[in-house]
Amino acid sequence: MIVAYLKSMARRFLSRAQTEQEMQEELQLHVQLRADSLERAGLDRAEAERRARTEFGSHVRFKEECREAMGGNAIDAAIQDVRFSLRSLRKSPGFSLVAVITLALGIGATVATFSVVNTVLLRPFAFSHPEKLLWVYSQRSDNPRTNFSLPEYCDYRDQATSFEGLAGVASFNPGFADSGPPERVQGVRMSASAFTMLGMRPLLGRTLIAEDDRNGARGVVVISYGLWSRRYARDPDVIGRAVNLNGETREIVGVLPPSFALPNLDTEIVVPLQPDADPRRNVRNSVNFLRMVGRLKPNVTTQQAHAELEAIRQNLQRQWCCSQFSVRPARCF
């Protein structure tokens, strides 16, 4: 409704000359019709027109009332204000420069402040008991937040006892194709257990389950609310539809709620990690592409979890001391 009103205002503004002409013609028509009526009542034509103009009064007043009803006066007032402001700024260029810089800095600070508030306070991650969640990164001397290799993740996942579970998360940006135009989407590969750990429920269908992570499981994908809205017009029958990701057919099994988000990761789609099906599963010096998220067990502190991860790292380093593989420290956030 607001959009329609703004469009109407724009049309009136762009065709102001035509609108003024139409108002003038309509006012003249009313005067002529009144004069005709008075002439039929017995007045001569000149007197009838004079009296009709007197009864209608000033055309200027009627035009002002018409413009007010159509919103034209607001546009005219805004234009006049802009013209007056520009004339004033031309007269004082020094003051104008200071005013523009001050406004720019103020607007920039306001936008930056709102961005921080919106991210930190207004749109917190919608996880269950987030105070018990830890994001775990590998640590280098020059970078405190790097990724793990797949074998490292599996070692920590299988040996750590401080967590109810450790899930692996990696960026995954495949080509996406269905019956519509193909596109590149932003997403993640994630351990199927992550949704239960994060306490996230789907908007439609289901999230990933343990069976999805097994070697040889059928291909599935969970899509974001944004992708569902943009590509499928929020069609509830999207569940079960087949899509193609990098040449691999997958079935849409769920739609995520609008609140779903992961720190520093775009999530238009989520597919299972399937670590045992990955050819890098047992390659110790393979690419580092995974970060981890874990939920602490009751009564376990962050410091205790960090100490346990460090102990696991040292054991792995001793185990692989004769190879070129090096286990970097893990760090919890």
Structural features:
333 residues, alpha+beta, 2 domains, 13-stranded mixed β-sheet, 13 strands, elongated
Would you give an account of this structure?
- The protein is an alpha+beta fold.
- It has two domains: 90 residues, no CATH class; 203 residues, no CATH class.
- The chain is 46% helix and 19% strand.
- Strands 1, 2, 3, 4, 5, 6, 7, 8, 9, 10, 11, 12 and 13 form a 13-stranded mixed beta sheet that branches.
- Helix 2 crosses helix 3 and helix 2 packs across helix 4.
The average pLDDT value, as a whole number, equals 77
The figure for the number of domains is: 2
User: How many β-strands, per DSSP?
Assistant: 13
Task: Return the structural class.
Answer: alpha+beta
Low-confidence stretches: 1-5, 109-123, 322-326
Q: Outline, from the CA principal axes?
A: elongated
Q: Strand-and-helix sequence, N→C? A: HHHHHHEEHEEEEHEEHEEEEHE
Helix-strand layout with pairing:
Blueprint: H1 2-14, H2 16-40, H3 45-56, H4 59-70, H5 72-91, H6 93-122, E1 133-140, E2 143-146, H7 150-159, E3 163-172, E4 175-177, E5 183-184, E6 187-190, H8 194-198, E7 204-205, E8 220-223, H9 225-232, E9 242-245, E10 248-255, E11 269-272, E12 291-296, H10 302-319, E13 330-332
Parallel strand pairs: 6-11, 8-10
Antiparallel strand pairs: 1-2, 1-12, 1-13, 3-6, 3-12, 4-5, 4-9, 7-10, 8-11, 9-10
Helix pairs in contact: 2-3, 2-4
